[in-house]
């Protein structure tokens, strides 16, 4: 399977980024480097901390009010180089394979190559044997894996995941984590948000802690969990509420 090395789109650099909507500041002066390292970057923080907005902005879906975001030094992310998966992806009224073929067609993959690529992507996400199953009749975990296959149809250099396991049971969440590891091993840079500290410990090479739209702490996962530098980080790791 073709998975491209994410060299030219990384790092993603936020420079004093603010996003304000209806007089509400959602991101406030974010300066952050999402590096080109192979390990996932994981965003954590309480609900409303700005994680989803940061992912959308990194993908180029939300304009910034102040500051700038660059991708490998460029002001715009090429449309075929990034993909994003939201918490509740919409399933097309097609089979599982049909959903993937549609994504491949939208990505400009030649028709002659779509059947093979569809089979490869479904195998990668553990849906072999369910090709003909209507996508909307799949379980929640299966739908999330199918949505990942669709996102990967673009052969992205960067994959943004917004709480991909938030509504899943432990077995389904574990399957998603395995896919994250698999695509990371194939050279795709994963940047994901999660509310699950255990998941962050299992997957992250780097941690970004947000609170009230501000960057509280950023660094290697090992250092963050062993020696958090801020009181907010210590509070959050302890499972207490950040207010």
Question: How does this model look, in words?
Answer:
There is one protein chain. This protein is an alpha/beta fold and 243 residues long. The protein has a domain of 161 residues: Rossmann fold (3-Layer(aba) Sandwich), CATH 3.40.50. Helix content is 34%, strand content 24%. It is built from 8 helices and 9 strands. Strands 5-6-7-3-8-9 form a 6-stranded mixed beta sheet, with helices on both faces. α5 links the parallel β6 and β7. α2 runs parallel beside α4 and α4 runs parallel beside α5. The chain is globular, with a radius of gyration of 18 Å. The N and C termini lie far apart (46 Å). The model has no long low-confidence stretch (mean pLDDT 92).
Q: Give the name of the CATH superfamily of one domain.
A: P-loop containing nucleotide triphosphate hydrolases
| Shape assignment | globular
By DSSP (H or I, 4+ residues per run), the number of helices equals: 8
Rg over C-alpha atoms, rounded to the nearest angstrom: 18 Å
Name a few traits of the molecule.
243 residues, alpha/beta, 3-stranded antiparallel beta sheet, 34% helix
Q: What's a concise summary of this model?
A:
The chain is α/β, with parallel strands linked by helices and 243 residues long.
List the helices and strands and how they pair.
Layout: E1 12-21, E2 24-34, E3 41-44, H1 51-59, E4 66-71, E5 82-85, H2 96-106, H3 111-124, H4 140-152, E6 158-162, H5 170-185, E7 189-193, H6 197-203, E8 206-211, E9 214-220, H7 221-226, H8 231-237
Helix pairs in contact: 2-3, 2-4, 4-5
